[in-house]
Write a structure and sequence with these properties.
By secondary structure, the chain is an alpha/beta fold. It is built from seven helices and six strands.
Length: 193
């Protein structure tokens, strides 16, 4: 019999990144691109999902729109998810909430890492709001969150890390997300309900 742990290590973890705002001039885009590079450094099967490409206008949990169907396909068989979001008015963007509410079973027992972006010192309320909703959707939000705040003091306009000491927080975030992704994948594949 094949050792399940060895089998899991042979399979690349599929963990996409959602850029959670469609706002013009969004600062979150450079953070999402940076995190995409980090995820690839960690050997993840990853890609960027830009919410502006999935503006649905209403919660389409019946998958009646092409955008909702495309989103469901991109989320098929994921092992986890990273959401990069700004904090707007003590919360997170409505277009991200609508997109998140489109599907459910694809999220079940998958870890969620949240990356907050702010031009000031914000982000905590967006992270807390997403965590609460994520649990109801079936995600397992990880404890470690990242706060790119103020974003321009951490990343350059071309998505290069300006404050090298921030890398240790990024690495803790990635290690925790990967640990949960491997552990929950093992559970989904090997433990009967």
């Amino acid at each position: 019999m094949t050792n399940p742990r060895f089998y899991l290590l042979e399979m690349s973890l599929k963990i996409p990144i959602i850029l959670g705002t469609a706002r013009v001039g969004r600062r979150s885009e450079k953070v999402a691109r940076y995190m995409l590079g980090v995820a690839k450094e960690y050997g993840l099967n990853t890609y960027l999902i830009d919410v502006k490409d999935f503006i649905i206008g209403y919660t389409d949990d019946k998958l009646s729109t092409e955008a909702a169907k495309r989103y469901k396909e991109l989320m098929r068989d994921i092992d986890g998810l990273i959401i990069v979001t700004p904090e707007y008015s003590h919360g997170f963007p409505g277009e991200l909430k609508i997109l998140m509410d489109t599907i459910y079973k694809e999220y079940y027992r998958r870890p969620l890492g949240i990356v907050a972006v702010s031009s000031g010192r914000g982000g905590a309320r967006a992270v807390d709001s997403i965590r609460t909703i994520a649990i109801d959707l079936g995600f397992v939000p990880i404890k470690q969150a990242l706060y790119f705040a103020p974003v321009d003091e951490i990343l350059s306009d071309d998505s290069r890390l300006v404050r090298e000491e921030f890398r240790s927080s990024i690495d803790r975030f990635m290690r925790e997300l990967i640990w949960f992704a491997e552990t929950l994948r093992y559970g989904r594949l090997n433990i009967k309900e």
